Fold this sequence. Notes:
The complex is a heterodimer of chains A (491) and B (448). By secondary structure, chain A is an alpha/beta fold. Chain A has 2 domains: 93-348, Type I PLP-dependent aspartate aminotransferase-like (Major domain) (Aspartate Aminotransferase, domain 2); 354-475, Alpha-Beta Complex (Aspartate Aminotransferase, domain 1), CATH 3.90.1150. Chain A has helices at residues 58-69, 92-98, 101-104, 116-133, 145-162, 180-187, 205-211, 234-243, 336-372, 393-396, 402-411, 439-457, 462-466, 478-483, and strands spanning 8-9, 12-13, 137-139, 170-174, 191-195, 216-222, 247-252, 271-274, 294-296, 308-312, 315-319, 388-391, 418-419, 428-431. The longest helix of chain A has 37 residues, at 336-372. Chain A is globular and about 75 Å long. Chain B is of the alpha/beta class. Chain B has helices spanning 8-17, 49-61, 84-91, 93-96, 108-125, 137-152, 165-175, 195-200, 223-232, 317-320, 333-367, 391-403, 434-447, and strands spanning 70-71, 129-130, 156-160, 182-185, 205-211, 235-240, 259-263, 279-283, 295-300, 306-311, 374-375, 383-387, 406-407, 410-411, 423-427. A 7-stranded mixed sheet of chain B has the order 2-8-7-6-5-3-4, sandwiched between helices. In chain B, strands 11-12-15-14 form a 4-stranded antiparallel sheet, with helices on one face. Chain B has a two-stranded parallel ribbon with strand order 1-13. In chain B, strand 3, helix 7 (165-175) and strand 4 (182-185) form a beta-alpha-beta unit. The longest helix of chain B has 35 residues, at 333-367. Chain B starts with 7 loop residues before the first helix and ends with a helix. Classes of the chains: A alpha/beta (491), B alpha/beta (448). The interface between A and B is large, with 195 and 212 residues.
Amino acid sequence: MSQQYSSVSGMQHEEPLLFEHAHEAPESISLPGVQADAPSSLDAFKRKKAANIPGLSEPETVRHFVRLSQWNHGIETGFYPLGSCTMKYNPRVNEQIARLPGLAHVHPDQPEDSVQGILGLLHELQGWLAEIAGFKDVTLQPAAGAHGELAGLMMIRKCLDARGEENRKKVLVPDSAHGTNPASAALCGMYTVEIKSGADGRIDLEELKKHLDGDVAALMMTNPNTAGTFETDIKEICQLVHDAGGLVYGDGANLNALVGVARPGDMGLDCLHINVHKTFSTPHGGGGPGAGPVAVNDTLKPFLPVPRIVENAGVYAIETEDEQSIGTILSTLGQTGVYMRANAYISAFGKQHIHKIAQDAVLNANYVLSRLKDKYHVPFEGLCKHECLLTDEWQNKHGVKTLDIAKRLIDLGFHPMTVYFPLIVHGAMLIEPTETESKDTLDAFCDAMLEIAAQCEAGDTQALHDAPLKPIRRRLDETQAARKPVLVWSE
Amino acid sequence: MRYLPHTQNDRQTMLDSMGMQDMSALFADVPSEFYLKEGEIGLPDALSEAGIVKKFINAAEKNRNAINTRCFLGGGTYYHFVPAVVDYVISRGEFLTAYTPYQPEIAQGTLQALFEYQTMIARLTGMEVSNASMYEAATATAEAALMARRVTRKTRTVIAGSVNPRYRAVTQNYLSRLEGDYVEVDMGILGTDLSKVIAEIDDTTASVIVQYPDFYGSVYDLVPLREACDAHKCLMVVAFSDVSAFGLIEAPGAYGADIAVGSGQALGIPMAFGGPHLGVFACKQKYLRQMPGRVCGLTKDADGKRGFVLTLSTREQHIRREKATSNICTNQGLMCTAAATYMALMGDEGLKTVANHSAAALDLLISKLPSHVVAASGAHYNETVLTFESGKKRDAFIAEARKQDIFAGIPLEKFDKTIEAKHLLVATTEMIEEDDVNALIAAMEVAS
């Protein structure tokens, strides 16, 4: 075997950590400004030891991060059917417009008359989100979905307090809910009670009624739920909760199933957070930034957070105070750069096309379901919405688990679906294709899933247990990582 | 519609394969009373791509920005230089369009970048460990207060009046629905005397939160605070608004901070009218398991090769639900990649130069002030408060500066309306040149 001269072999590269690029830092980047040292008044406070941040030259920095990027799978690289995450194509023009200097290099405390353009775009988006979701008003302040949940629950809390019902502290959460729901309720000083889903995966009205008493503050629900099915009794559910004196919080993570087709606000919900990094196509960035605006009806509108953008005769202003408001939950108006992209995205669809988002998303999910349902166990029969839920029950008989299927998909060229969520079924596989995938891609994915099912039936399962074999790394030892956590590099 | 690949034929073929007539069959489970009529939703007409570009260019031109003005605004957001490489790296589709790295085998790029970010943030703040981001500085401060309650099992929170009023407001809001005292210590305007803060610490105190450099830009000694925290077994939380300071001055870790939180926006992230920014969160290793948010850890794969995974997820909402250390899920992942790229480009020397130039610009500004404008005394990094003889004189200056396309500073009462309207919070960075300072001073002279 010949000697290894480089970390690259056959254009497959290993890339060391920044800290392992073992040479002296080159001359650093040229920087503008007042070319002088800090004043002597700071001498007494100077760092005694350098931080030890390794400087690389510009070409080395670019190569380092470009190589790292190539170890990643993104929606631009391929299919990404992560259920509950809405991994759709992120239009490139949205990246272009968000970088305009008049939007990207604007300080949040500039005088209002110098930011009328951006305030106008934000105010316009507020109105569009309210219209699409079917509510009266929207706050843009929450920085992500979970932050929106917190804002929504704070508004509910304040509304109940205003009614003199401080004692209502029980938040009902279906057992299929996202983990953020109970965590957000706890932050609000409320406690959660889990409601067991019915045999069809939906909220069971009889079960719900058992919990509706004078302690109920709210029901937090996701519709379509995390099993991908529509809560057909939505109107009755909202009515029951309202009759019991509670409010209904909508987790809008699954709004992609309904956008332009039907509106949660029309169904009786009191508020809904919207994950613009899902439904409105702002890039996920490997874990954010997102944004979690909350839409509210008349009941909760008085309690919206400040600051908020208001319009008066074509002039936009920022209101910072309001007696009834829950106050402020972020140091600025919100993740404005994310909202520029969302505004551009909705602009591209307009009233003519917006419903096609939900239509094609639901079409694609049902198509995948129809192609896979004979070979994978479907826990809840019937139509699905924008995502479909399967389990590994039939593959278990051959010693194969959801995790094996997921890892095998990687070798076959697909990002796995969401696994082991929702928690209400054993070995869940939640597949959300989104509307931006072609029939060819869906067919290729289904073919791969069917090949895996066939391998299980044939008892030819070694490749599944060994998977993945092809990416830069094979299965990683998560137990070791958690037992002896190493979160920073030390030489 | 250009973002949708299906042709009408594709749609019909797929519907046919499922025995469905048309699209409405897909929504048979939604009660028909809720159907919207196609095309009747209250949105404008669809725009072409060219139309979108035109719309946003027109809107952007209605704004002034830091490039076509001279920007002395700070207060938590700073106009630092963003190298082209940073924006290029985070524009790479593999970073930009990936989800949270739940499948580590095909997300090693994001994960290694996060690990490098955590390492460099720990080093820059002088702390032992860092998470992989909070939303921004105010929520990070609130999360620090919550974390201290979990670590100490105590409920009193003491926060200095010299902490950015927005961080205080958010922290108070987060704590207001939970049991326990929340005490804001009035230190007077520009006060850096920690003795009043220390006097509020007792044995029931979970944390004391100070800002360093403080909201008014003051740099001061935190050693007495550490001693008081030790005496009462409470956690010392140090917040900051501009992490670039620690390229030059001692970091929170050097003073023995238990938790350091603040804004990482200075690390290659544009101001973007308030977001997305980056919330930095770092702490001592022994408190790791109470830390909120995602963390990336080192491990090995099945072949023994080094790799990275998200770890300690048993602290998080998707496992622990109502007992989680935080409700945070989506965070500012891409901003970590931006900050890691920025720090790699800068290195110790570059970071030090940024800090030197930022501080030197403020020093130059102060040295040129006319006699009727007074800068706060004491050591300052890149931000200070200018006090005018009257509110009227200050406002005349602000107006004159605007005429010259200068954003002169932020009136302090914008943050706290109880403050008399004659102060101006002024910040500088390495983007401020000598002629920017001269223009500001000239406006001051004209207005007087």
